Amino acid sequence: MIDPFGRHISYLRVSVTDRCDFRCVYCMAEDMTFLPKAEILSLEELDRLCSAFIRKGVKKLRLTGGEPLVRRNIMSLFRSLGRHLDTGALNELTVTTNGSQLARHAEELRSAGVKRINVSLDTLDPEKFTAITRWGKLDQVLDGLDAAKRVGLAVKINAVALKGVNDTEFDRLIEWCGTQGFDLTLIEVMPMGDIGGETRIDQYLPLSLVRGQLQRHWTLEETDYRTGGPARYYNVRETGRRIGFITPMTHNFCESCNRVRLTCTGTLYMCLGQHDSTDLRGPLRASPDDALLDAAIDEAIARKPKGHDFIIDRRHAKPTVSRHMSVTGG
Ligand code: SAM
Predict the structure, then answer these.
(1) CA 187 to mean position of chain CA atoms
(2) Mean pLDDT by 10-residue block, N- to C-terminus, for the chain (330 residues)?
(3) How far apart are CA 174 and CA 184, in angstroms?
(4) How far apart are CA 61 and CA 42, in angstroms?
(5) Terminal CA-to-CA distance of the chain, rounded, Å?
(6) 234 and 220 in contact (C-beta within 8 Å)?
(7) How far is Cα 26 from Cα 195, in angstroms, rounded to an integer?
(8) What's this model's pTM, rounded to 2 decimal places?
(9) Choosing a second label site near 250 at 20 to 30 A (CA), which of 120, 201, 272, 308?
């Protein structure tokens, strides 16, 4: 699949549920309305959709959400998608999780063929953790991380940089990731979805600033390491681990975009930061063979936009994109 700007689309991210057991302050309002269950694709339908993309050249598949590990019977989807790793059609099956259910699922993930996982963790302070996630317990996530390490899953920690919340903690996070053997990625907060009282301008911290501050304590060596994603990676000489920076706000990362995103209702978004989408549930359900689905996918890829237009400033009180990150999956 090649888009109008010559980019090869080889990475599919699938939000398997919009529900989550946390309510992170920058992600969701506390009082969220979730999709009616009837609108959500079955696990078999999600498998068929993912398999169609793999047949068309997707090599990397990430299940995300919402919280993917709270969806009932989600391990059966991991297991069935694992067959594409066995045939070599797929290079990587992975997951982004908040880690709350990882202690129960780490071993099964590993045996389904998952090798690396991303775990979102913004702070190592238990009280702050509960303040950020509203409903989360840090210990539960740390237990999940222990389980992941035990079964040999490589872990990357994702932390959203939040002004006045975790901005004094990055040194501690880098050090802790070093001792745990985890890589770390810092992410700029993006203006997606209404989050209730708070505004993104209060949370937003440009990572260009953070990187400069970190360089006072850490030797960040430039690398050309890439995971096929938007992060710029550096080796932290003192810990021997990598640190990545995802900077959608301060640096437009769209020129190398290789991905599209599918929601749990079968809507395909060609860009995280744009409204345009294509319904794939209709063609999926209209016929048991994949001809209609294939045509709808081709038509969507031909519409992939050049880039996003995220803006955070005082004149833009409303989020640039009205849907929450949990819809398209972060
Ligand atoms: N529940 C899983 C998790 O916590 O990793 C997967 C879904 S969550 C939406 C994926 C990632 O998006 C998390 O790392 C989260 O911190 C991040 N995220 C959510 N809303 C965001 C926003 N407005 N800006 C930047 N990152 C955001």
Answers:
(1) 11
(2) 95 97 92 90 98 98 97 98 98 98 98 98 98 96 98 98 94 98 93 70 86 96 82 95 86 80 96 90 96 98 85 58 69
(3) 7
(4) 18
(5) 22
(6) yes
(7) 7
(8) 0.93
(9) 120
Structure tokens, 93 = 């099956």
Q: Is 326 in the pocket of ligand 1 (CB under 6 A)?
A: yes
With b for 16 or more beta-carbon neighbours within 10 A and e for fewer, the 263-297 pattern comes to: bbbbbbbbbbbbeebbebbebbeeeeebeebeebb
Best of 63, 97, 98, 323 for a ligand 1 pocket test (most atoms within 8 Å of beta carbon): 98
Closest-CA residue to 194 (of 326, 54, 102): 326
Transcribe 54-110 into DSSP letters. HHTT--EEEEESS-GGGSTTHHHHHHHHTHHHHHTS-SEEEEEE-STTHHHHHHHHH
Helix (H, G, I), strand (E, B) or coil at 5: coil
Out of 23, 26, 116, 272, mutate this one to test ligand 1's pocket (max ligand atoms within 8 Å of CB): namely: 26
What type of residue is 236? V
**329 Cα to the center of ligand 1, angstroms:** 7
Structure tokens at 236: 């932290």
Amino acid symbol at 146: D
- Quote the longest CA-to-CA distance of the chain: 59
Residue 54, amino acid: I
